[in-house]
Design goal:
A two-stranded antiparallel sheet has the order 1-2. By secondary structure, the protein is mainly α. The radius of gyration is 20 Å and the shape is elongated. The chain contains three helices and two strands, in the order αββαα. Strand 1 and strand 2 form a beta hairpin. The two termini are 22 Å apart.
């Protein structure tokens, strides 16, 4: 039987916010142009696969600030979760399993048929 862990509420909240921040950052990066700075488009058909990019207008100052804000918060939360005092009470062999379980606590525990 797999071990169960009694994660403290602040650790669970930190992990959940980390998931949310990462999802928000990923969604933002998918919406933004491919280049931070304005760049011309290009096409490379001579490599082993074709690579094309349209011209990029670059990111606005507000977009850059939003990305930096989310990245900063992501780092803060990652440090909080990985350095939480809870991990001092978990034996070294169990830490990987415990960390994995923490990452997936937000998922529905009932398997779908």
């Amino acid at each position: 039987m797999a071990a169960t862990y009694d994660f403290p509420s602040d650790l669970l909240a930190g992990q959940e916010e980390l998931h949310q921040v990462r999802a928000e950052l990923l969604a933002l990066l998918k919406r933004l142009p491919w280049s931070v700075e304005p760049l011309d488009g290009f096409s490379d058909i001579h490599g082993w696969r074709k690579v094309e990019r349209p011209a990029s207008p670059g990111w606005t100052a507000d977009e850059q600030a939003e990305v930096e804000k989310l990245r900063r918060r992501e780092r803060e939360l990652a440090v909080f979760v990985t350095c939480h005092r809870f991990w001092d009470n978990v034996t070294t062999p169990e830490k990987v399993d415990a960390r994995s379980r923490l990452k997936h606590t937000h998922e529905d525990p009932t398997p779908t048929p």
